[in-house]
Structure formats: C-alpha cells, structure tokens
Specification:
Rossmann fold, alpha/beta, six-stranded mixed β-barrel, 665 residues, Dimethylsulfoxide Reductase, domain 2
Length: 665
C-alpha cells in the first residue's frame, strides 16, 4: 500500500497500483486504518493495574518501571516454578515476520519458557493440504482470470480475499461460471451464479461424492493419474461408498445437484477452486481440505493455466525462520533442552488445569485471547487468577488488556520495520516506518530486546537490528528465495518469489512434482473417509436433542478477528445472530429481538436477524465481538469448545451445537 503524508501526518492510505495482485485498492478494513492510527483511545504509555483483574483500571508508569517489574517477576517465577511456567501467547496481530516471530521467539527460547503451538487459525487446513499435495501452495490468484469455472468453497472472497475478486470478474466477463459452497450465503454467495447451502462440517463428504460421480462416469484424467499419482484403484473403491444419495443426506445438497456439480467441474476447463479456512474449522477440517485438494489431481486440472486450487501460498515463502527465531537458544536456557509445547486452542485448560509446572506468567502480544479463544468462560476464569502474572502488549484496551498486570503500548505496522509473506499470492514485501511512533509506543522487537537486556541475556543475537534479522531470514538456499536481498526489497518494496522463470505462470503440479518421497500424489484411500462432527446434526443424538442448531461464526466482512472490535459499525455487525425464518418462527423470534444463544458451556446475548442467508438448522454469528461490548460480557466463544480438529490440532469453532431463545433482558 501507499500512504499520503501531509505535515507529518498520514492523510490517506491507498493500494499500490504497481502491485500485480492488490492493483491499487485496499479492503474496506484497512482503507480506514488511519482512524485506528490516530484514535484517541490508542494506548500510548506503559501502565500498571490498580483495580481487580478484568476491571481495566490502570495507572501510568515509566518504561523503566515496567521493564524492571516484568524482568523481576519473570525471573522469580522461573526460579520458583521453572521457566516453563512462563507462557507466551501470540498469533497474527501484526502478520510480520519480525514483530510476530523474531526477537520474541529468541527471548522465550533463551528463557526456557513453554512453547506455544500456534494452531488457532490454519493448522488443520495446512495439514490437510500437505497430505493431499505435499506442499502449502497452489494456483496463483492472477491465473483465476483464465478459469471457466470457479468454485469458492468456504471462501467469502468479498469479505476476506477481496483482491481476488477482480480476477473473478474478469473471468466471468469471459464467460466463466462462479459458484459458492458455504453454510452461509454471504455477500460473495449473493453475487454467485449458483450457491450451494452445505451443512457445517460436511465438506469432505461432498468432495468424496463428487469423486464418486467423476470416476463412475469416467470423467477423470486417466493420463495425469497414470503419470503422477498412486493408489487410484483403492480410491475408486473408497469413493464407491459415497453415492450422491448418501452424500445428499450428509450435506443437505440434493443428489442431482451433486451429480451436476461433479460433471461440470470435471468437464469445464480450466476449473479453479478457491477454498478458505472456514471449512477447516470443524472437527473434520483437515479431511475436508485434503479431499477437496485431491479434486484437481483427479481431473488433471493442475496442468491448466487457470486451473487447480488455492488455500494458502505460505509454504512457498521458504525463508530461514530458524535463523530468525533461534530455537537453539533453548539449549542455553536453564532447562538445557526443548521446552514443553502448549496448544493455544487449549488456553482455558492450560490456565486452570496445567501442572508440572502450572502457568504462572502469561505474556500476550499480537492476540486477544479473551475474545478469540474457545471456551471463553474457562479462559476468563484463568485470566482472573490472582496468582497469574500477565503482561499484555497492545494498541487498544481489549478484553485481554483489561486483565493485564502490566500493559505496554505497541506500535502499528505504519511505525516499524517488518517483512511480510502472503497467504494468497507469491510476493515478498518489506515495509519501513512511514509515521512516527506516538507517545511512548514501542515495537515488539524493541520490547523483547530491552527485556533480554534486563534479564541479562548476553547472546549477540539480542543486539541484532531489524535489518540484521531480515538478512538472517533471507539467508536461505531454497530456490524460491535464494538471492533475494534486503537491498532489492528496499528498492522494489515487493518481489515475486522465484517460483517460475521470466514471469511465467507458477503451476506447481502441472507435471506432478508433489511433495512426497515418490513425487506423486499418493491418494492413500485407506485413510480417506468422512465422519460427521460430534457437534452436528448427524453427530451425537443426545446432544443434538438438547441443542438442535448448528452455530457457525465466520469472519465479519469489516473486521479482522477482534482487531477492529472497538468500531461502532463492527460491534453492530458482530452483535447479530442470523436465523432462518423456519427456526425463528418456531421460537417466536423476529428481526430485532434480543436472543439468548446457549449450550452447556455458556451463553451470550445477540440481536436476531431473520433472513434467508442460512438454511434451517443453522445459525450464524459474525465474529469476533469484544465481550465487554456485550450485555453479558461474553461473545460466541463462550459457546465454542476446546475440541481439536482431526489433524493439525486446530480449533473446531464451527462444530458447535446451540439452542436459541427470545430474551426478555
């Protein structure tokens, strides 16, 4: 992006017209980012808690006071309980390599703190994609303009991947059809040629049913399969168990529609699938991504420009992360070994139940777990422990910040240096600070550098500058990255990874070359199957009888998880519960009613919006509301569980059974 600066102050953010993917425009979320930059509610100074945890009352202190207290408390906690009693908690708040996984990782490795298994977003989908292709990459967004059929499968492109949309528009102008598959007919679905309402968590069944039709009718690419795959005959036998009639019952999509979709997908060339992370946030999420990602292999779509599939491109960014994160420092810690791993999805259990040692210190940055982590009541109970020392690095006073003992003000991406990878394209990007850091805000890199000095960590890496860290990252022998320098990035700002020569289309599996020992796509049909989630309409019957509605909580179009939850429009949008008229009528609910949504884990209050955007049996609450904005101080994560996905140990946010009733409160 580009910024206009007038009198030292940012006046406008805009897309860079020279970027081949973003092409001169920004999403609505970031286009308004200067409101955040200059908000009067921005945290500007270090603070110490003076009230009860959760009350959000603080007094200003100096950086020296804050750093001295943090260092002293971490040292004493590590000495008494062992360094693994310290737990870092972070995720994608900055999206930068340095601010998200640089000096902080070095610090916690050297301390010997528990390691965080960062699975809350994409781990299940990544595991499924790697099982299918061996790599976490796929079709370039620029190639979607050449497709003749595009399936947006669990992908709200207008809300969460808007820079792909112009390529889809171009494809449609050239005669392409655009279909959406999603339990929620969002803005993207409303603009599609055809929308398929699918039961939450049943995506793998639909993919297997499509395979059944394709193979039964001989529509597979026999030559591609013979050259570049193994295990096809076993696959044929396995998908024979998923005829359209059975799949229709599992998915809610009519058998004739499944047959027509499979035929069209297999015969219209090129055909591209854009799947996104919503569909992998269910109990069978990894299997869903794996099964869908096998479809282009079955039809040979990988060999077409404009064909194939895309979930993530992150696996192509083969930078030298060990040189940045320095996991070897763990062996210089008091532990002298690798420390334990704590799954971030299980934060509630970790804070309340973990022993040997218990979690006694929590350092939160780039995340707001009080709002985004599942089993919210357990998380809040843990955050309110009087014996838990909590440090939060933040830009705004979130629900998590309200529970801090020490609250530190953080810079925004406009105020610090960082290097960025991409989920959806193949361009590496470098950004330098363009605005002065306001007040006494500091970057994550600087905070952990200062803490390392306070803790007496003399290792030279803690004195590295941001440029030193970027050079370490770029010191990679992988052909996609090798030779890219910080000087080039400073000059160009963004560079395409070296995924293809002379600007040719990147077609990773056109000639096989899958990331397996054999180089072939190995179907492994013996492990390819579908079982409904426990919390679903085809799951545990007793649970379903008490809580008959399937809750999904997809990303709100105008917020980034909880990052923009302070905006009035975002709070209004995330306070809604979308219901089908059939479910609302039987409960005496109309649009505008306050409703209580609940299950055995908890409850929250939302405002009903009765429409046709969800099918009967499904309710939809756009996420993620700040709990303290809600009448009950809870959002829908008071209802979600700590149950993990089939692979990747990710969260099952969208496998959640609930009941809804009209509230008189």
């Amino acid at each position: 992006m580009l910024i206009n600066i007038e009198n030292g102050r940012g006046s406008r953010l805009r897309g860079n017209p020279e970027h081949p993917v973003t092409r001169g425009f920004l999403c609505g979320k970031v286009a308004r980012y200067l409101e955040r930059e200059y908000s009067p509610d921005r945290l500007l100074y270090p603070q110490r808690r003076v009230g009860a945890k959760g009350d959000g009352r603080f007094t200003r202190i100096s950086w020296d006071e804050a750093l001295d207290e943090i260092a002293a408390r971490l040292e004493s906690i590590a000495a008494e309980f062992g360094p693994e009693s310290v737990l870092p908690y972070s995720y994608g708040g900055s999206m930068g390599y340095l601010q998200g996984g640089g000096m902080d990782r070095r610090f916690f490795h050297r301390l010997g703190a528990s390691r965080l298994d960062r699975t809350i977003c994409s781990a299940a989908g990544g595991a499924g994609l790697v099982e299918a292709t061996g790599y976490k990459y796929g079709t370039e967004p620029e190639q979607f303009r050449y497709a003749k059929l595009i399936l947006a499968w669990g992908a709200n492109i207008l809300g969460t991947n808007v820079h792909l949309w112009p390529f889809i528009v171009e494809a449609r102008r050239n005669g392409a059809k655009f279909y959406t598959i999603d339990p929620h007919r969002n803005r993207t679905g409303e603009l599609s040629d055809k929308h398929f309402f699918i039961h939450p968590g049943s995506d793998a069944a639909l993919a297997l049913g499509m395979m059944h039709v394709i193979i039964e009718e001989g529509l597979q690419d026999a030559d591609y399969i013979a050259r570049y795959t193994s295990g096809f005959e076993d696959l044929r036998r396995r998908v024979n168990e998923y005829p359209p009639e059975r799949v229709a019952a599992l998915t809610g999509i009519a058998a004739h529609e499944i047959i027509e979709l499979a035929r069209e997908y297999a015969t219209v060339r090129p055909a591209a699938i854009r799947l996104n992370y919503g569909l992998q946030r269910s109990e069978r999420g990894a299997m869903a991504v794996r099964a869908i990602s096998l479809l282009p292999t079955l039809t040979g779509s990988w060999k077409d420009v404009g064909g194939g599939a895309e979930l993530s491109t992150s696996g192509a960014f083969q930078v030298n992360k060990p040189a940045l994160e320095r996991p070897d420092l763990q062996f210089q810690s008091p532990l002298g070994r690798e420390s334990r791993i704590v799954n971030m999805v299980l934060l509630g259990s970790a804070l309340n139940e973990l022993n040997n040692p218990p979690v006694k210190a929590l350092v939160v940055y780039n995340s707001n777990p009080a709002a985004v982590a599942p089993d919210q009541n357990a998380v809040l109970k843990g955050l309110r422990r009087s014996d838990l020392f909590t440090v939060v690095l933040e830009q705004f006073q979130t629900d998590t910040a309200d529970h801090a003992d020490i609250l530190l003000p953080a810079t925004t991406f406009l105020e610090h240096t960082d290097m960025y990878f991409a989920y959806g394209h193949y361009y590496l990007q470098l950004a330098r600070p363009v605005l002065p850091a306001p007040g006494e805000t500091k970057s994550n890199v600087e905070v952990f550098r200062l803490l390392a000095a306070r803790m007496g960590f003399a290792d030279p890496c803690f004195r590295d500058s941001e440029d030193d860290m970027i050079r370490a990252l770029l010191a990679s022998d992988h052909p996609f990255v090798k030779g890219i320098t910080i000087e080039e990035l400073d000059r160009e700002h963004f560079m395409r990874l070296r995924v293809a020569r002379n600007g040719d289309p990147f077609m990773p599996f056109a000639q096989g070359e899958f990331g397996t020992t054999s180089g072939k796509c190995e179907f492994h049909a013996e492990t390819l199957d579908y079982t409904p989630p426990v919390e679903s309409r085809h799951g545990e019957a007793a649970l379903r009888s008490r809580f008959p509605l399937e809750l999904i909580s997809p990303k709100n179009d105008n917020s980034m998880n909880s990052t923009l939850g302070y905006r009035e429009d975002v709070d209004r949008e995330t306070s809604q519960l979308k219901m089908n008229a059939h479910d609302a009528l039987s409960r005496g609910i109309v649009t505008g009613d306050q409703v209580r949504i609940f299950n055995s884990r908890g409850s929250c209050l939302l405002v009903a919006k009765v429409d046709a955007s969800v099918a009967p049996g499904v309710v939809c609450a756009p996420s993620t509301r700040w709990p303290k904005q809600s009448p009950m101080f809870r959002n829908v994560n008071a209802l979600t569980s700590e149950r993990l996905t089939d692979k990747g140990a990710g969260p099952t946010f969208y496998s959640c059974l609930v009941q809804v009733e009209k509230s008189g409160d």
